[in-house]
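Running this now, will post back.
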Amino acid sequence: MEWSIQEIAKIAGTTSRTLRHYDDIGLLKPSRTGHNGYRYYSQSALVQLQRILLLRQLGLGLPVIAQVLDREQEAAVALNGHLGWLEQEQNRLARQIASVRRTIKAVEGGENLMAEEILDGFDHTHYKDEVEERWGKDAYAKGDAWWRGMGPDEKLAWKQRAQKLGSDWIAAAEAGISPDSATAQELAKRHVEWLKDIPGTPAAANGENGVGIKEYVTGLGDMYVADPRFGANYGGTAGAIFVRDSLRTYAELNL
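Update: finished.
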């Protein structure tokens, strides 16, 4: 079964021009081109398009998407990774939606709500078990106390700092620079300094909790690649690989 370029553009919520551009840069080839010049797409082409759209949702640029598609030839394997991330996001968003609905109902009806009900889905504690397993309960307790002790403006500033670091990593990865370049290494330095400012991390503890900072930084880079939740902060798998390699190089030279 085949679909015309106009049909696919309508179903996918994109444009024929975008699909033609994907063809021109080798990202998505049509199954065939008719005698009238129209492009037609088979099911396998649509699977490829689905992967492209998912990667775009993660914030990846087209050059990086091309690298990811080239490296991950098995569509089913790659899509399973995307699916895991989407299901986690679905659960988080479902909790937030339910929380907001309860809040609206309570506000309109003059009812009282518990704080846990209002903020369900917005907390930072969903990584608690992982942090305790990797770096111990003390590491989580210190980081949690530090975060809860911040005021709203401090939390906003911290989030903006993290988002800026993530966006700079994505831009550097999309630029195609080497992990050992001066730009990448400056980002790695910023990243390590950012980690040192988080109480309870091995970076801040300077190895006091049994994990050396070098081991911690390189292990964290590996985790960014292995877990789509973390990789999404850096544009997806390809971006996470770039961050990992940059941090590894920095750790070998400086830590």
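The first strand starts at residue 3 and ends at 4. More later if anyone needs it.
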